[in-house]
Design brief:
This protein is α/β, with parallel strands linked by helices. The protein has a single domain, classed as 3-Layer(aba) Sandwich (Rossmann fold). The protein is built from 3 helices and 3 strands, in the order αβαββα. Helix 1 crosses helix 3.
Length: 92
Amino acid sequence: MESRTDNTEATKLVQLLRAAKKALIALGSTLSVYPAAHIPLLAARRGAPCVIINRGPTEHDGLEEVTLRLEGDVCELFPPAVEAALAGPAFS
């Protein structure tokens, strides 16, 4: 799991969004409020990729259930990735 966001990690997010039929994406959360913080882990254990985008650490950092961890501002990272994924061949 990578926690530093760079162009490679942003590309991985776009690829995941294009390929996944289902995914759980935690946006802007420290994932520290339970029982809701269990939801991403439950989804991952049922086969959904689990992506975390947050500025700062989360309680799920380093867990094997996390497919991709991006460090940074949700508004800067997520909308461009969604646009790029939707512009891909699967959606045209």
